[in-house]
Specification:
There is one protein chain. The chain has 356 residues and is an all-alpha fold. The protein has a single domain, classed as Orthogonal Bundle (ABC transporter involved in vitamin B12 uptake, BtuC), CATH 1.10.3470. It contains 16 helices and 2 strands. Strands 1-2 form a two-stranded antiparallel sheet. Helix 4 runs parallel beside helix 9, helix 4 packs across helix 13 and helix 5 packs parallel to helix 7. The longest helix is centred in the middle third of the chain and has 27 residues. The N and C termini lie far apart (47 Å).
Length: 356
Amino acid sequence: MANKIVNQIKKIFQSQLAIPLIALIVLVVFNLIRDPSFFSIVIKKNNFGNTVLSGNLISILNGASELVILAIGMTLITSATKGQDISIGAAAAIAGSVFVKILRAGTINPGTIILGVILACIVAILFCLFNGVLIAKFNIQPMIASLILFTAGRPIAYWINGGATPNVESPLLKYIGGFIPHIAIPTPILVVVAFILLVNLLLKKTTLGLYIQAVGINERAAKLNGINPVLMKMVVFVILGVCVTLAGSMNVCRIGLINHETILIDIEMDAILAVAIGGNSLGGGKFKLSGSILGAYIIQALTITLYAMKVSSTAVKAYKAVVIIIIVIAGSPVVKQWLKQLKNKISAKPAKVEAK
């Protein structure tokens, strides 16, 4: 039994998840040495008198919610198109603006919220499909194609609400962005768990995941095997539209307003880094969603750690950049090959000297 467990652990650390797992372990050990109570969870009453869970661990899981959702979308885009969409933050701002506009058009109730999410999703999907058409039909490099929406997206979000940053106040929105009464876990964490399960069901119970990877690995071979590369690329942009809608709407519910300039600012860079840290190739092909999800939580854990160390908000990005560079280099093919060669040299048996 013990040997079986050891073999399973070895298998995990020899897989694609090795680098993110090692990075996560290093972060956990560092924080436990620095502050043994860093990951402690406390039960307290919030401003509304509800019993809730609190602590750095909850802050990491809760704060990374939007990033996890967007990292999932970015992983699928990277796999199918062999590139990255840098406009997801702008698309989320558009979705959030549509969501707010619908909410302010009438009384905020469950029906209005659902309608707002649906309409925001439709608009976000259309904008994401614009990128998809440029990439799939016109063969424009993904980062260049998405640069258009990256530039124009936030001004469009500003225009949707008439050049204003309107507030939306409702207990229902606070429940979505914060805590549901009598449930101690933050609602965004529950939304992320549900979304991860749904995406996994979609990819595992259908051939979609296999087709996306096939297109990313070899588009011509996939086409010869009856897979439509253009359709697959369009599908991943539809999924990305759903991701940016969830992220944008959730952020609106958190803060109670839409600010086109600050909503999920620079989130696209963190999403790309989450994909890379998770061991996924930025050149497309095979992917592992669990790696990207781990990568998103590692980025958030690093951010919370730096804030706990009293690092100023202006310096956080610089520190994060240094650590992330180390993680990405450690997971690069060159370093992996070097480590493999080193392992082979160490494990190689010394040649026997023949007796004369």
